């Protein structure tokens, strides 16, 4: 009897120990400033007085990704070169002020509608909605105060693959869009030196949604250098020609025989100044949407970029149907950070997304989200070397 009681006691003590050790592993405490693989520091105050925070995610290899809940911006991203040296390869700044002063969406979460909507207007279920024309005559990247300029709620989730969960509720009518939209974005820094971004959204009225991340990369880690020597592959056999205001004409054009063919590796600079190509002229280089050959919504490898000096390779995987490949042609030195002012073509973006202007182009895959549906996409940016 005594023995039975003793073993029962031992058992429950063991059980308790198990429970508590498990608890420390999975506890998420957003009030403590330091947890195992995520650290939180203040990132300064917004003009509204709200406080922004900066989270540092680290994995066991030494990859570091810093993300602020202001705009969900990836501020720093340390990736290894062929000698194992980790250097920041993401354009941006260490200071909130720089982002508030001038940022061409550096590293930010873009929404409610990433990319352009022609003339800032679209019609849904017979009703016309008017958006801010913040890019010439067009609407760009969600409006004057898009998701890149709002404060998200952040929940750090510690673990071998640390996560930062960001949520934001966009009010019905915000920036002209219909429906209250609940958005959740989870950044996961994975063991294999990749960053996974899971996007989810739900609405209470039919609306349009196209979420992306607007990270600018320079795989040399030297932000004063142009990215023209980077070698790019895009697994896309078509692209969307645009008009002079960068709105798709509606045509899906084969890339074969054009400077837009990256189905085999080409240096960014090889054909970027082709004087005969009117599309290059309109984009001042590459600033177009490529449509993937694999049209499934499965996670697939869609792009890879290799920088020969450092040996860095960036691969992109996504469930989305298209990608805006933008070569920083509008960087003009106004945006500053990390000791430099960012000049012409010193960074490139690979913005996974649905096609621009889909709300006005019935033939494009739909970007309409209805109340009974869940918007769900995933994109992975993976670093390696060769
Ligand atoms: C657009 C560019 C624009 C840049 C920054 C890109 O997604 O395609 O035209 O200059 O974002 O706003």
User: Which ligands appear in the coordinates?
Assistant: beta-D-glucopyranose
Number of helices: 3
The 3D shape can be described as globular
Indicate the mean pLDDT.
92
Bin the strand percentage: 35-45%
Strand order in space, largest sheet:
12-13-14-15-31-25-24-19-22
Give the total of beta strands: 31
Subunit structure: Monomer.
EC number: 5.1.3.3
Catalytic activity: alpha-D-glucose = beta-D-glucose
Pathway: Carbohydrate metabolism; hexose metabolism
Would you write up a description of this structure?
- The chain is mainly beta and 386 residues long.
- The chain has a single domain (39-385), classed as Beta-galactosidase, Chain A, domain 5 (Distorted Sandwich).
- It is built from three helices and 31 strands.
- A nine-stranded antiparallel beta sheet has the order 12-13-14-15-31-25-24-19-22, with no helix packed on it.
- Strand 4 (64-68) and strand 5 (74-80) form a beta hairpin.
- The longest helix is centred in the N-terminal third of the chain and has 25 residues, at 2-26.
- It is globular and about 55 Å long.
- It starts with a helix and ends with a strand.
- Residues 1-34 have low confidence and may be disordered.
- It binds beta-D-glucopyranose (BGC).
- Residues 104-105, 246, 287, 324, 326, 330, 351 line the site of beta-D-glucopyranose (BGC).
- Beta-D-glucopyranose (BGC) binds next to strand 26.
- InterPro entries: Ald1_epimerase_CS, Aldose_1-epimerase, Aldose_1/G6P_1-epimerase, Gal_mutarotase_sf_dom, Galactose_mutarotase-like, GH-type_carb-bd.
- Pfam families: Aldose_epim.
- Pathway: Carbohydrate metabolism; hexose metabolism.
